[in-house]
Amino acid sequence: MAISTRPELRISQVARFPGLRALAWDGNVLYASRGYDLLSAVADDNPIRWQTVARYSAPMWRNLTVRSRLTLRLFRDGFHALAVLSSGHLIAAVPGAIIVRSPGSRYFRVSHKVLRGNRPLHIAVASNDHIFWGEYFDNPRRDEVHIYGSTDKGATWEIAYTFPQGAIRHVHNIVYDEWEDCLWVLTGDNGAECQILRASCDFKHVYAVASGKQQARAVALVPTREALYFSSDTPFETNHIYRYSRRGILSQVAELNGSSIYGCRVGEAIFFSTMVEPSAVNRDRHVRIYGSADQASWDRLLEWKKDIWAMGSFQYGNAFLPDGGNTTNLLAITTVAVKKDDLQTTLWRV
């Protein structure tokens, strides 16, 4: 279906925070990072006041590179993912490590060193505060790929599931589904490596619901009571938003201007962002936000133009949408590698 050029879903900007990256919601509390400091704020307060929660003591050289926007982008500094447990523990991904902050502590500690790749893209929290993340690394030889899990609030990690050699390139995301009490595992990147799998929370039962095509190459997936919504992330074909109903019916619901790797839900509204990753198909140099109030009609809501800096070194233009459960009517967006709004978090009332 065509994207409306006159959005029916209305959003209005209510706040702007330079230098912050939004990471995760916990009800009405938004967590964000500035370098290797983690902050939080009650997002529906007026005015919004940020407080420092904890800090990660990064290697000395990273404490230098994180101070500049361009070197932060070049070296992929800072926090990249965060999960909030009901116990108050915080689990985060930083370059080369999974780190944990216990309730009341002012510092994160390393609980697991990431030996393949730089870090996972996301961290999932299932029932009973069980935590999972999947390996994300270049993997040119298509070695086996692991999903790690922790049942002790991130203190220790064990391999929960292994994709055999040749099965996939890497894991894009793991998403917990509260309605079915299961996990959705998204993998890539080529041919049969592109899979959307349903897994029980103990990984004893894992099966694919979509696979083998670039449109099953996904990073962002948003569960709702009636269906799952996911966006494709392919440089080879036009990208789309899809609906996978609880009855197992897959349908294409909207066309996107580029690859998409972030999605979220605000109330009943669903949002996906696109990135600037030019290819023969994806030629648009704008980051965009798409949204739907009813999941039937989708609107193009916001856009930013890619900045002048080289993409391979200084990152693709993108809009990060935080993980977690959001009970407010606010949409949080962090833009990177775009003109005027590089490394800025904005809040929008939906």
Describe this structure in words.
It is a single chain. It contains three helices and 29 strands. It has a five-stranded mixed beta sheet, with no helix packed on it. The relative contact order is 0.15. It is mainly beta. It has one domain: TolB, C-terminal domain (Neuraminidase), CATH 2.120.10. Strand 14 and strand 15 form a beta hairpin.
Outline the biggest β-sheet: 5 strands, mixed
Radius of gyration over all CA atoms, rounded = 19 Å
CATH superfamily: TolB, C-terminal domain
Number of domains: 1
> From the coordinates shown, what is the CATH architecture?
6 Propeller
Helical content stands at under 10%
Using the alpha-carbon principal axes, give the shape: globular
What's the mean pLDDT score? 96
Residue runs with pLDDT of under 50 for 5 or more positions:
none
Count of individual helical segments: 3
CATH class: Mainly Beta
By DSSP, the count of extended strands is 29
End-to-end span in angstroms? 23 Å
Q: What name does CATH use for the topology?
A: Neuraminidase
Produce the secondary structure layout.
Elements lengths: L11 E7 L2 E7 L1 E6 L2 E6 L8 E5 L4 H6 L3 H6 L6 E4 L5 E5 L2 E5 L7 E5 L10 E2 L5 E4 L10 E6 L7 E6 L6 E8 L4 E7 L6 E6 L5 E6 L6 E6 L3 E6 L7 E6 L4 E6 L6 E5 L2 E5 L12 E7 L6 E7 L5 H4 L3 E3 L2 E4 L3 E7 L7 E6 L1
Parallel strand pairs: 2-27
Antiparallel strand pairs: 1-29, 2-3, 3-4, 4-5, 6-7, 7-8, 8-9, 10-11, 11-12, 12-13, 14-15, 15-16, 16-17, 18-19, 19-20, 20-21, 22-23, 23-24, 24-25, 26-28, 28-29
